[in-house]
């Protein structure tokens, strides 16, 4: 949620087209700060999954053989 006691406000210049597209993504009552924060988190998750998929596809893995002690 938007924090009204933010220490600083930054401006991000964008084209009219991008402004319109981002504005369309906003939900009623949602601030641009909230929307952009959500978009950043989604992008971080997407990149993580992309990296893991790449590592799995390109990586050479070895099986680790170890015994797990019985808990009984």
TrEMBL record:
Protein name: Uncharacterized protein
């Amino acid at each position: 949620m938007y924090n009204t006691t933010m220490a600083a406000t930054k401006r991000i210049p964008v084209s009219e087209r991008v402004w319109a597209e981002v504005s369309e993504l906003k939900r009623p009552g949602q601030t641009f700060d909230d929307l952009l924060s959500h978009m950043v988190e989604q992008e971080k998750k997407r990149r993580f999954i992309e990296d893991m998929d790449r590592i799995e596809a390109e990586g050479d893995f070895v099986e680790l053989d170890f015994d797990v002690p019985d808990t009984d």
